[in-house]
Design goal:
The complex is a heterodimer. By secondary structure, chain A is of the alpha+beta class. Chain A is built from 3 helices and 8 strands, in the order αααββββββββ. In chain A, the strands form 2 sheets. Chain A has a 4-stranded mixed β-sheet, with no helix packed on it. A 4-stranded antiparallel β-sheet of chain A has the order 2-5-6-8, with no helix packed on it.
Chain lengths: 193, 343
């Protein structure tokens, strides 16, 4: 069981690596030419660039006589191939198991006199911008249900809970977003130990 | 007759397609399932009438139904959408905190509501333009309808009566305010709203308890009788009991009932408000006086006692000879005010 979890963790890390690379491209495009591409489109562009590159590198590697140039070409082929493969894996993963539109969370360590319903819950994307979720606090509990519109292959990165004098953030993993998990957030309030 | 009903041997391909379609329908969970949920909404163990049951999916909440006078409801919620884990059901009623429930779903994707009653809690602040929580609201328990009135829409009838009482009381209080020397608190804030708990006209203790729980200025409960016969529209007889909720040592409350006759075919709250008797406003003024006396007694503010005295005198001058009970209540209050002013 633990081995399976670790395996899942490393698989997610691989997906995270490719997502990080594509997000860097998206951020660059936004900052330079003010174009905000959806994740799938950015991934498709990267894939369209990297797949031919991979082919070119492989051709060069097979034709090169010099050892150093051959190694460099193989390294290029491996990197472009790995990124392309990871993008395809990401698409397959999200196609097979899409993100849920509803998340359930629980806030713990509430400070004295902090009413859960007064706390603000937010989902943030990779840029730290809010995804505008709709939050329902369940009466008589510290649980909340949160709804948002997930984008294909572009999961929210952070969940943030805040209120008067209290704040907490938690990084979201894919398994938090595919249902059946209650996201637990320990609130840090001013004056609490 | 459809081709599906014909022997499969004659139309093998059509039959196979129909069978596959039927199997697919049967195996898609919740494809055409109609969900149902029922329960009871209570407040302090008493039923809450007219509480709204709403479901929340994408977009605005959708009203599924309302509770009956016994606090019971039966609604048909939607199936939980794909990629959702729970349904959100909301129970609301003015004067109470919203109750938000997260309901798990079954294999048919229908929300599962437990058998426990849903308990509402009183909200701290006012709402709906009225002033519950500040002690300036008159609560009207749902009228019990009998005779031909029993065939009316109970909720609509009670809503109209609440509006009519509000208009009648506000009209009287405004007239009073214009004829006396000072303001008796914020008369404009006196509101009228339905009492969520169904209390019986005969249950004075229950009425008073519900009023205390709601921090009411007064509670009204009553019965409505329609003596119309087929083809003959007779007036509706409205018999109401009006209890003042704030308590004050010098205030001796008499069991006060108001009898109104309303046109059997009238539904306009403004017209009905004009038809209601002046006793509504008079009794509301007494409730306000008792409330003001409690406050003045705590602060010892002589100026406020003088204002109260002017209101008592103003109200006394409007009483008719048949309103002896109100006159006695006023006399007792006036004596108390005079005692405070002479000290």
């Amino acid at each position: 069981m633990q081995a399976a979890t670790e395996q899942m963790g490393s698989y997610e890390q691989v997906l995270e690596f490719a997502a990080g690379l594509v997000n860097a491209v998206r951020t660059f495009l936004t900052n330079t030419v003010n174009i905000d591409l959806p994740m799938w489109l950015a991934q498709a562009i990267v894939l369209a660039l990297f797949l031919p590159l991979c082919y070119v590198f492989m051709r060069r590697a097979s034709k090169q006589q010099a050892f150093a140039k051959r190694v460099a070409a193989w390294a290029g082929a491996v990197v472009t191939g790995a990124v392309s493969l990871t993008i395809v894996m990401t698409w397959m993963t999200y196609w097979r198991q899409p993100l849920f539109e509803q998340l359930e969370g629980e806030v713990s360590d509430l400070g004295a006199n902090v009413e859960p319903a007064t706390l603000q819950v937010d989902l943030l994307d990779f840029r730290g911008q809010t995804l505008g979720p709709k939050v329902q606090w369940i009466s008589g509990s510290t649980h909340f249900l949160l709804n948002y519109n997930p984008e294909f292959a572009d999961p929210p990165r952070l969940i943030r809970v805040g209120g008067t004098g209290c704040k907490s953030e938690r990084r979201l993993r894919r398994q938090d977003l595919v249902g059946g998990t209650v996201i637990s957030i320990a609130l840090v309030c001013a004056g609490s130990p | 007759m459809s081709r599906c009903a014909q022997p499969l041997l004659q139309h093998r391909r059509t039959g196979a397609l129909c069978a596959a379609f039927a199997i697919a329908l049967a195996t898609i969970p919740g494809a055409f399932a109609e969900c149902s949920a029922s329960g009871t909404v209570l407040y302090n163990s008493g039923p809450v009438n007219n509480a709204e049951i709403l479901e929340v999916y994408a977009g605005d909440p959708v009203l599924l139904g309302k509770t009956d006078p016994q606090g019971k409801f039966r609604v048909t919620p939607s199936t939980v959408p794909p990629r959702w884990t729970k349904a959100v059901l909301i129970v609301t009623h003015p004067g109470f905190n919203q109750l938000t429930l997260a309901l798990p779903m079954g294999a048919d994707r229908c929300p599962r509501l437990g058998s426990e009653p849903l308990n509402l809690t009183e909200s701290g602040g006012g709402g709906g333009g009225n002033a519950a929580g500040t002690g300036l609201t008159l609560f009207v328990a749902p009228y019990q309808l009998s005779g031909r009135a029993a065939t009316r829409d109970v909720a609509a009838f009670n809503a109209t009566i609440v509006e009519a009482i509000y208009l009648n009381v506000q009209k009287f209080l405004t007239q009073m305010e214009e004829s006396v020397t000072g303001p008796l608190g914020d008369v404009d804030d006196v509101g009228v709203r339905p009492l969520p708990a169904a209390v019986f006209f005969t249950d004075a203790e229950g009425i008073r308890r519900a009023g205390s729980d709601a921090h009411a200025l007064g509670v009204i409960a009553g019965i409505a009788v329609d003596r119309s016969a087929p083809g003959v529209v007779a007036p509706i007889e409205l018999r109401s009991r009006f209890l003042v909720i704030p308590q004050y040592p010098a205030f001796q409350e008499y069991d006060f009932q108001i009898q109104d006759e309303l046109p059997g075919n009238a539904v306009d709250p403004i017209a009905l408000g004009d038809r209601l008797r002046d006793e509504w406003g008079k009794r509301a003024t007494i409730a306000l006086l008792v409330r003001a006396l409690r406050e003045a007694n705590e602060t010892g503010d002589k100026r406020q006692f003088r204002v109260i005295r002017s209101w008592i005198i103003g109200l006394r001058s409007r009483l008719g000879p048949e309103e002896a009970l109100l006159a006695r209540e006023l006399e007792a209050l006036k004596r108390d005010v005079e005692t405070h002013l002479s000290q």
